[in-house]
Amino acid sequence: MTATHEPATGVDEIDTDPAALHPITITVNGTTHRLAVEGRRLLVDVLRQDLRLTGTHTGCDQGVCGVCTVRLDGATVRSCITLAVQADGADVRTIEGVAPDTRTLHPVQQAFWEKQGLQCGFCTPGMVLRVQEILEQNPCPTRAQVREGISSNLCRCTGYQFIVDAAVEAAERMAEGS
């Protein structure tokens, strides 16, 4: 006699296949996208490969360097360690969505450009998003507060001085309303 095991009535089987597709809806830079993604798919890969938003860079792939920084429901996150399914129903902002329009830079972007807060540009998208969040949380930070706030994002070119200068300049402009 062979015994068979059937799931109990009313119990759903858990799909443990990492390649199984999961439907998600995310709003990226104001545009809603409906996608089917593998459970193991990273947000950075969906942004770069599926949505062709290549301003979000990849660096360490471990959530350490900050170049993959995006804003998820207003808070900065590392998109290289955030699963796309975690962003289901969320509002995602990438560097492509920072400027108010195609002819005007956001005050943080303008200050980075004028104060030479970028050199090679690799860390710049994540750094701009991080500075933007810092200034929303504290519209008038000290230089030390800016340094502390950006310490989560690495830059190999500027020595951070110009980035701090740009953040302080942006704070002043935003306080003036320009």
From TrEMBL:
Gene3D superfamilies: 3.10.20.30, [2Fe-2S]-binding domain. InterPro entries: 2Fe-2S-bd, 2Fe-2S-bd_dom_sf, 2Fe-2S_ferredoxin-like_sf, 2Fe-2S_ferredoxin-type, 2Fe2S_fd_BS, Beta-grasp_dom_sf, Diverse_Oxidoreductases. Residues 22-98 form the 2Fe-2S ferredoxin-type domain. PANTHER family: OXIDOREDUCTASE WITH IRON-SULFUR SUBUNIT. Keywords: 2Fe-2S, Iron, Iron-sulfur, Metal-binding, Oxidoreductase. GO terms for molecular function: 2 iron, 2 sulfur cluster binding; metal ion binding; oxidoreductase activity. Pathway: Alkaloid degradation; nicotine degradation. Pfam families: Fer2, Fer2_2. This is Carbon monoxide dehydrogenase. The keyword Iron applies.
